[in-house]
Specification:
about 600 residues, alpha+beta, Phosphatase 2c, domain 1, Heat Shock Protein 90, 6-stranded antiparallel sheet, 16 helices, 22 strands, about 25% strand, elongated
């Protein structure tokens, strides 16, 4: 073994004696290689470099971010500067354009990246719409887009600067910064043209050659697929969100004594959109119904079920049915659906006459009441089973909501995270509300702040109702009618005097007739009248309550019949009328238009 000397050492000594120095070959990973010469790039190195690109580009389904990742990965690995432009039609969710002939595409600058030495270039600002109608027809980017072919300028001449740069000042900047080589490749995925990517080299970097164009084309083809996936995802999400929004109220109605702010935030994931809804319904005699609900599951099936339940709930609320009875009817409707889905729901009715809320819950998160002192507390609403479970009845909660207080209704997407338990989520909501000023609650800042927190992933609904004193345009009067003597005469006198105070004597004759008929029906079929309510807002509303269970109906009276025509007269003289059951009996109301 020659004294234990190894074979490698003997070989090294022999090479050194011959004047040949031994070297260790080292291949740098593709992700750390600077500006490259494609013809010196081995096939294995190309594959490693493109594999690195597949892990660095398309990390999300965001179109702008994917374009920026393409530009950042290209610099300085492939070029000293890169810019990505996408067709405006692609950003609008369309299929792209097949631009040929004299067509001039409208694009938008999506991403720009350059080494520090090229900071003086003048690329189009990111986000700017680039309408090339006034650009030169010889612009090489147009050639790339129209013909779907790569463009290569290895050594730029004075004429080439004018063909590469979109403006004269940009051409001067490129020449001053030492840009000497240019190439542009189209972004095409699944046969659809999405845009183009431009690359430049400057200074001591070697010029582009055909091998570089081929490598850039492979990179662009890969990135284009990622961009097309993001485009398709964005279009699907937009369709689902549009469907969701079309099933929600377009605006909240004017409600006396109550200011309501409603807000919906879709999920970040298209499959997360679907089941959350809300509604605000103006009821007779100035009351307001508030509804929030959440269908389990996501996607189109949940959105369709939500639309059905919201329609049923709105119909029931319009009939002025008590919240607990509304939930019972909704439970039956949910069980009749073929989707086998359940939903949570919370209904509340606000009465401005005594500033009270009547609330019922079907498995929904508890509402939050913020007092006039700004201290929030969760309401202990009896929680019934979710809709569709078949477990009824539901128990209501009645409480006062004085002026200056706010009732916060929401769906679990406002508080739900992937890591915290329910108690922690609710405490986070209470703390967030406590830290906010009243005006911040009214403008939806709560939803914005909570959705910005890490871990929020589901869609959410926020409904903030704030009770306040009735304005001068809203006049409300409530009387307890006597049970003995002549309550109809008393009612006529009360409404006549009140209409005179409100300068509405033109409506006195019709209102006297209406109130006489309502009180007479209460005496005949309802065990006597209870309360008489007169509300003047955008219309004049008269309401009489009693303890009878049967709702009045218009009868077909013959010529010889002495009665049965009262409701027919009300139906002819009033804009509309109706009745609804209450916990103690029923209410019958009628509504007239105000004189012009």
């Amino acid at each position: 073994m020659n004294g234990g000397e190894s074979r490698a050492r003997r070989l090294s000594r022999r090479l050194a004696a011959q004047g040949i120095a031994s070297r260790r070959l080292h291949v740098r990973p593709a992700s750390t290689v600077g500006p490259l010469r494609g013809d010196r790039f081995t096939t294995a190195a190309r594959l490693r470099w493109l594999h690195a690109a597949s892990t660095r580009i398309g990390t999300s389904l965001d179109l702008e971010r994917t374009a920026q990742e393409l530009a950042e990965f290209s610099v300085p690995r492939l070029a000293d500067g890169a810019a990505v432009d996408l067709l405006e039609s692609v950003l609008l969710g369309e299929e792209g354009e097949r631009v040929t002939g004299a067509g001039v595409p409208v694009t938008r600058a999506m991403a720009v990246k350059a080494v520090e030495s090229l900071s003086g270039l003048e690329p189009s600002p990111v986000g700017k719409v680039v309408d090339r109608q006034h650009y030169r027809e010889t612009l090489l980017t147009l050639h790339c887009l129209r013909n779907r072919q790569s463009v290569l300028v290895s050594r730029m001449t004075e004429e080439d600067y004018q063909r590469v740069a979109p403006t004269a000042s940009a051409a001067v900047a490129m020449r001053r910064q030492g840009v000497h080589s240019y190439m542009a490749v189209p972004l095409i995925a699944r046969g659809v043209l999405l845009g183009s990517a431009d690359f430049v080299r400057a200074g001591d970097s070697p010029p582009f050659n055909r091998a570089d164009v081929e490598l850039a084309g492979q990179l662009a083809a890969m990135a284009a697929v990622f961009m097309d996936n993001a485009r398709l995802y964005g279009r699907e999400r937009e369709h689902v969100v549009s469907l969701q929004r079309s099933l929600l109220p377009r605006a909240t109605p004017h409600t006396p004594g109550l200011k309501v702010h409603a807000q919906y935030a879709p999920a970040f994931d298209a499959h997360g959109v679907g089941g959350d809804w809300y509604d605000v319904v103006a009821l007779p005699s100035g009351r307001t119904a508030l509804v929030v609900g959440d269908v389990t599951g996501h996607g189109l099936p949940a959105a369709v079920t939500m639309g059905r339940l919201r329609t049923v709930a709105r119909t029931l609320m319009t009939l002025d049915i008590e919240p607990d009875r509304v939930l019972a009817r909704l439970d039956l409707a949910t069980r009749d659906l073929e989707d086998d889905q359940v939903a949570t729901c919370l209904c509340a009715v606000y009465d401005p006459a005594d500033s009270t809320y009547t609330i019922a819950s079907a498995g929904h998160p508890p509402p939050l009441l913020v007092g006039s002192d700004g201290v929030p507390r969760f309401l202990d609403v009896p929680v019934g089973a979710p809709l569709g479970a078949g477990v009824i009845p539901y128990d209501p909660l009645r409480l006062r909501g004085p002026a200056g207080s706010r009732l916060v209704l929401y769906t679990d997407g406002l508080i739900k995270t992937r890591v915290d338990d329910v108690d922690t989520q609710l405490e986070g909501l209470r703390a967030a509300v406590a830290a906010m000023a009243p005006e911040q609650l009214d403008d939806g800042s709560l939803l914005t702040s909570l959705r910005a927190a890490d871990g929020r992933f589901d869609e959410a609904v926020l409904l903030v109702a704030g009770g306040h004193e009735l304005s001068e345009d809203v006049r409300l009067q409530v009387w307890d009618l006597p049970t003995d003597g002549n309550p109809a005469s008393t009612a006529r006198k009360l409404v006549t005097e009140q209409l005179s105070l409100w300068s509405l004597t033109e409506l006195a004759d019709v209102t006297e007739l209406v109130v006489s008929e309502l009180v007479g029906n209460a005496l005949r079929y309802g065990g006597g009248p209870g309360k008489l309510r007169l509300l003047c807002d955008d219309r004049l509303r008269v309401e009489v309550s009693d303890t009878g269970p049967d709702l009045p109906q218009i009868q077909h009276a013959d010529v010889s019949d002495e009665g049965g025509r009262g409701l027919q007269l009300i139906n002819l003289l009033c804009r509309r009328w109706g009745s609804c059951r209450t916990a103690t009996g029923k209410v019958v109301w009628a509504e007239q238009n105000l004189p012009r």
